[in-house]
Amino acid sequence: MIFVLLAAAGASYGGSRTVQRQIQFAGLTWNVKNGGPWGPGPNLWSDDPQSVWLDEQGRIHLAIRKVGNNWYCAEVYTDQYTTYGEHRFLVEGYVDRMDKNIVLGLFVYASDTAEIDVEYAKWGNPYAEDVGSFTVQPYTTEGNQHSYPSPLSDPYTTHWFNWQPDSVVFASIQGHYYNAPSDTGDYIERWSYYGEDTPSDSDSLRIHINFWLMNGLPPQDLSILEVIITDVVHPLSPSSLDHATGKRPPEGFELAQNYPNPFNPITTIRYQLPALSEVEGPVLSSVEGPALSEVEGSAVSDVELAVYNVLGQKIRTLVKKKQRPGTYRITFDAAGLTSGVYFYRLQAGDFTAIRKMILIH
């Protein structure tokens, strides 16, 4: 169940900080920033449910919105202080294609000199290629920041850093992973920091996620004004992970909406399989998603993912095999098909789900 809390009576969304709205996400209580103008930016911040919300799948959405003549940004930060260990953010969205003035920040923070960041931004240059950056503040100190190109093939990315007393190790990965990807080609970038500015956990850092405008400048490209955070793994709840595999098993079946949609002619379909009772029969090798060896001993599902036309005729089988619990991504290439409405259907054991997609040439 998703809980939304108000710490005081009387909401004032998008205005002064008269209310501290809180949400429950990833096992933590998060405060929703409201009011301003405050940094970064500076910007106005909104705790309106249209700016920050949790969907039925438990994912958190952050949006940049224009209300009247003003633009409002979004930020959440944990009520609890964090500590040394791994901080992992699972993100949905083409964050490499955002407007030149939009910034996504995934970070821990106590002050401008006690902060560790993963950021995606073009910093005012619409043609920037190095849109990703790893930083141990202050960024002005030589060797404290590493920028990298990040052309994304689909909107699912994982960004993490392992914060220790004398080091910070960073990585960005294409896809959603709770441990190291089996294919090292999925790494977007890795970097290790051994400088003198690593913050101490006694500095009382909190986990933050923000979506904001550089210097408070309005966006010009309005195509990406929202980002989704699927999950945050943090050292405050290590028991939530399956230590035998290093993964957090999915809690239920899910067939996600394809992305992009409408599409031309390639789109990505994501689905997840939870732990089930053992299914008899031979185990087949898996090409997409978690390697079977990574979740050895977990249950196996008979899975079929297929595409149908509006007449209900099956026109393409994308997956037909046994698969372990985990999250899978399938690329569907509709080249050769006519424009129109299609449906894709996931059958896994007794679970069935159908979604609609639109092909536009």
Features:
361 residues; mainly beta; Jelly Rolls; Immunoglobulin-like; 2 domains; 12-stranded mixed β-sheet; 7-stranded antiparallel β-sheet; disordered N terminus
Task: State the helical fraction.
Answer: under 10%
Largest sheet: 12 strands, mixed
CATH architecture of the largest domain: Sandwich
Under CATH, the topology of the largest domain can be stated as Jelly Rolls
Question: What best-fitting shape do the alpha-carbon axes yield?
Answer: globular
* Number of alpha- plus pi-helical segments: 0
Instruction: Give the ordered list of helices and strands.
Output: EEEEEEEEEEEEEEEEEEEEEEEEEE
Contiguous low-pLDDT stretches (5 residues minimum) are 1-19, 238-247, 277-298
Mean pLDDT over all positions: 84
Distance, first to last CA: 40 Å
Computed over alpha carbons, the radius of gyration is 21 Å
Query: What structural category arises from helix and sheet content?
Result: mainly beta
Q: Which percent band covers the strand fraction?
A: over 45%
Number of domains: 2
Number of β-strand runs: 26
| CATH class placement of the largest domain | Mainly Beta
Structure description:
The chain is mainly beta and 361 residues long. It folds into two domains: 4-240, Jelly Rolls; 254-359, Macroglobulin (MG2) domain (Immunoglobulin-like, Sandwich), CATH 2.60.40.1930. The protein is built from no helices and 26 strands. The chain has strands at 4-6, 21-25, 28-32, 35-38, 43-45, 52-54, 60-63, 65-67, 70-78, 85-92, 102-111, 114-121, 132-136, 145-148, 156-164, 167-174, 187-193, 206-213, 226-233, 254-255, 266-273, 301-308, 314-323, 326-333, 340-348, 351-359. The strands form four sheets. Strands 1, 2, 3, 4, 5, 8, 9, 11, 12, 13, 14 and 18 form a twelve-stranded mixed β-sheet that branches. The chain has a seven-stranded antiparallel β-sheet with strand order 6-7-19-10-15-16-17, with no helix packed on it. It has a four-stranded antiparallel β-sheet with strand order 23-22-25-26, with no helix packed on it. It is globular and about 60 Å long. Residues 1-19, 238-247 and 277-298 have low confidence and may be disordered.
